[in-house]
């Protein structure tokens, strides 16, 4: 895809509309919403009549309990739905509706009666929605705070969700969640909420609804001594509180692939670490209210720059979330004919909606506080919030070259190649050859190697003084082409050799040699490890060539005389053919984790052929790197493979990592664009901690010890990562850096990839999965142990993750103690190891 087509790329925003007080969606309402440029609407599953019926059942049961305090009464059963209880019915419009479970239930309630009735409502509504053909359901937000209790009911909420996933076998469910847990905003704002009916004794409250101990609380220790607990301070915002609740829900539901998140976007965004965590989760909906917007100087709703960046990032996910505008006003024209819109109308002009000087959150807050006349003026637009989002859709930045190349590969699991046992298809080679960055780097490395060889007057190995260059594992020949180009651009003659074991690719190499390379390449069909080196025929006459290039003045004269006066040549006894050394060895054997496609083992067999004094290997060295990540989507995909592949969690996968979160990060300032006031501000940007595991280097080979059985290529690393925030580790991301030639490097390491090889797309990272994800609390440490093992037939990896915390005191006194919190199972790719 060329740059022109990339500029034309526009992401698709599916935008829906939700009204909390909506009772019914008719075909006429849906048609008018679509005319206004909405894609879908939400609908309640039950009516206010059903709500009042449930409240009556609850009140009657509580009255009966009060009148018979010593009797144990069963929880009443809610009768099945009747026509007056629901506005839904199967029909043509059902596929364009999102069903909303009644928000007045409380599946986290500590009151068993309230919880039981809430669960009955959930099951009735989901079962009926499934019958009607609804495809997507939005579940109510779990209520995390009940009186003095915090987060106690999340498990029972999760169990209820797990059960209804089995009721609607094809329905996809989204759990409504705010980005962060703010206790002050967790109050009941739904009229008639069952949470308000929970009995005081289950909330840690007195009969009048206040805390039982309004002053400091008295407690007894194990020895019977009484001590005072000071009154708790008001709860603070827990940035990862709602994510923690979601983690419990999806863990209980075993990472069900029909369970998603409906994430509410707040007016003031939390730290980047929070938005990055949600970016890794399965987002189905981004819920946006009128409070998420501020009014720009023209009086129109707009996003801050941070909100725009968040939306752009989330909409680049492989399956981008839908956008749901909540309570931003009714569908225009349905109740008020004067606001009726005809199809395709209602777009803001670019001057109205475009706000090139989007303010920072602080400036947006200041604009709202001042409430200037200009920002509060009436605007003649019945759907300004929708039109702003449509304008943002058209203004999305074009995809980068890497995003275009990786389209469809984001978070897509691929088994690593087996290059020594499998012959690759032409299409596989073609994909790799689309990366111009890598081959430009190889060209530069070969050019520099040739120039240094000449400038340093190194002795060459070619019969006529040429530098011998061999490309091993030549494939379809891209590196051969680069080597010939390097020779031409530097004016330094080379003797070119290409070795390839794939008999099918060898046919193409022969054709290239005839049609493109002018038969300048010596082709050898062989495994590089069994090749004996460039074949040399013994000369029938002695020449003045001593093996050094360029020739000295005396050597040039002697050689010239020998060539022009054949009668002066001194014959000698012919010798049998021999094999000469290689001066510059070029290989393209690197894998996603540097050595995972057996580059060390392949080169072990050919490095003895390298010029023992001045030989150069390109690449000269490479290093593997690791970091722990949260990757719930990958974990769910791998778990789904277990029925057909018991070794799914033991396979290291090649993945274009996208919807992930780096668990160990450091902060560094990154300058953002100018603010509305013309000033530039610097905001902290999280940078992953990616640590070195091991390295390999190649040059003129030293003899291997007898019977080494490839033990010299074994490696082991133990790495420690500090984590600030609680998280779940689903596995490890593997990267590499390679030195092709001094000053020419390749890197997939996110920390320096843009510096060393920007835009390179030949390698995706390697993902080492954990069979059972490991939960880590705040301020913890992860220790990663990884091994590269071999038995002389194949190579495999083994890996393990441990979590640690530091505690004060204990039996040993007041010193700090490091305590192991948990450990993963040992992952091993031995059964599917890379065959040698």
Automatic annotation (TrEMBL):
Gene3D superfamilies: Divalent-metal-dependent TIM barrel enzymes, Hnrnp arginine n-methyltransferase1, Vaccinia Virus protein VP39. S-adenosyl-L-methionine binds at residues 429, 438-439, 500, 527-528. GO terms for biological process: methylation; regulation of DNA-templated transcription. The record marks 432 as: Critical for specifying symmetric addition of methyl groups. Residues 403-618 form the PRMT5 arginine-N-methyltransferase domain. The keyword Methyltransferase applies. This is Protein arginine N-methyltransferase.
């Amino acid at each position: 895809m060329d740059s022109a087509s990339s500029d034309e790329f526009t992401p698709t925003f599916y935008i829906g509309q939700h009204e909390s007080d909506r009772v019914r969606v008719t075909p006429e309402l849906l048609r008018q919403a679509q005319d206004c440029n909405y894609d879908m609407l939400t609908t309640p599953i039950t009516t206010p009549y059903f709500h009042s019926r449930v409240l009556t059942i609850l009140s009657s049961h509580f009255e009966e309990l009060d009148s018979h305090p010593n009797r144990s009464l069963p929880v009443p059963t809610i009768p099945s739905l009747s026509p007056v209880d629901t506005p839904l019915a199967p029909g043509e419009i059902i596929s364009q509706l999102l069903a909303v479970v009644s928000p007045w239930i409380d599946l986290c309630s500590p009151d068993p009666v309230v919880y039981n009735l809430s669960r009955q409502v959930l099951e009735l509504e989901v079962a009926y929605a499934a019958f009607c053909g609804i495809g997507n359901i939005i579940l109510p937000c779990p209520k995390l705070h009940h009186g003095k209790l915090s987060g106690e009911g999340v498990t029972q909420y999760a169990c209820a969700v797990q059960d209804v996933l089995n009721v609607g076998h094809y329905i996809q469910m989204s759990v409504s969640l705010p980005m962060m847990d703010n206790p002050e905003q967790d109050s009941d704002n739904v009229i008639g909420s069952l949470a308000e009916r929970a009995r005081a004794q289950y909330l840690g409250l007195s009969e009048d609804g206040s805390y039982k101990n309004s002053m400091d609380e008295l407690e007894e220790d194990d020895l019977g001594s009484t001590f005072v607990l000071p009154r708790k301070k008001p709860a603070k915002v827990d940035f990862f509180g709602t994510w923690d609740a979601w983690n419990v829900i999806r863990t209980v539901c075993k990472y069900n692939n029909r369970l998603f998140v409906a994430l509410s976007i707040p007016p003031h965004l939390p730290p980047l670490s929070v938005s990055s965590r949600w970016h890794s989760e399965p987002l189905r909906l981004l819920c946006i209210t009128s409070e998420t917007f501020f009014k720009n100087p023209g009086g129109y709703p707009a996003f801050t720059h941070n909100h725009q960046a968040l939306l752009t990032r989330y909409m680049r996910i492989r399956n981008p979330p839908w956008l749901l505008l909540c309570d931003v006003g009714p569908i225009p024209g349905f109740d008020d004919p004067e606001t009726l819109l005809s199809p395709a109308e209602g777009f803001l002009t670019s001057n109205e909606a475009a706000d090139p000087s989007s303010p920072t959150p602080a400036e947006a807050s200041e604009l709202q506080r001042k409430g200037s006349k200009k920002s509060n003026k009436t605007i003649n637009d019945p759907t300004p919030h929708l039109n702003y989002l449509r304008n943002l859709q058209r203004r999305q930045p074009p995809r980068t070259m890497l995003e275009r190349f990786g389209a469809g590969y984001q978070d897509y699991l691929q088994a690593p190649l087996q290059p020594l046992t499998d012959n690759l298809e032409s299409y596989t080679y073609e994909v790799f050859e689309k990366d111009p960055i890598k081959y430009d780097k190889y060209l530069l490395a070969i050019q520099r190697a040739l120039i240094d060889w000449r400038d340093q007057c190194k002795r060459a190995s070619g019969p006529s003084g040429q530098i011998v260059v061999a490309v091993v594992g030549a494939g379809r020949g891209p590196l051969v082409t680069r080597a010939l180009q390097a020779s031409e651009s530097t004016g330094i003659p080379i003797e070119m050799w290409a070795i390839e074991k794939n008999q099918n690719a060898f046919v193409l190499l022969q054709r290239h040699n005839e049609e493109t390379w002018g038969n300048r390449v010596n082709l050898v069909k062989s495994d590089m490890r069994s090749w004996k080196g460039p074949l040399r025929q013994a000369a029938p006459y002695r020449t003045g060539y001593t093996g050094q290039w360029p020739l000295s003045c005396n050597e040039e004269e002697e050689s010239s005389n020998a060539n022009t006066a054949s009668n002066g040549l001194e014959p000698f006894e012919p010798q049998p053919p021999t094999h000469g050394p290689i001066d510059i060895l070029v290989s393209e054997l690197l894998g996603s984790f540097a050595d995972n496609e057996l580059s060390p083992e392949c080169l072990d067999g050919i490095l003895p052929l390298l010029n023992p004094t001045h030989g150069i290997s390109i690449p000269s060295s490479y290093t593997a790197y690791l970091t722990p990540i949260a990757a719930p989507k990958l974990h769910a995909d791998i778990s789904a493979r277990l029925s057909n592949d018991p070794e799914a969690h033991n396979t290291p996968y090649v993945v274009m990592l996208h919807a992930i979160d780096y668990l160990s990060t450091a902060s560094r300032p990154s300058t953002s664009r100018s603010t509305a006031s013309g000033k530039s501000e610097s905001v902290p940007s999280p940078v992953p901690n990616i640590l070195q595991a091991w390295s390999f280097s190649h040059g003129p080979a030293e003899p291997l010890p007898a019977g080494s059985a490839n033990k010299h290529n074994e490696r082991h690393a133990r790495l420690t990562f500090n984590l600030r925030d609680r998280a779940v580790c689903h596995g490890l991301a593997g990267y590499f850096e390679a030195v092709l030639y001094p000053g020419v490097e390749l890197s997939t390491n996110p920390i320096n990839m843009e510096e060393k090889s920007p835009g390179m797309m030949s390698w995706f990272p390697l993902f080492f999965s954990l069979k059972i994800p490991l939960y880590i609390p705040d301020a913890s440490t992860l220790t990663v142990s990884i091994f590269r093992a071999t038995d002389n037939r194949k190579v495999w990896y083994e890996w393990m993750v441990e979590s640690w915390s530091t505690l004060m005191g204990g039996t040993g006194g007041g010193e700090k103690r490091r305590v192991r919190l948990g450990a993963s199972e040992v992952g091993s790719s031995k059964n599917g190891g890379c065959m040698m």
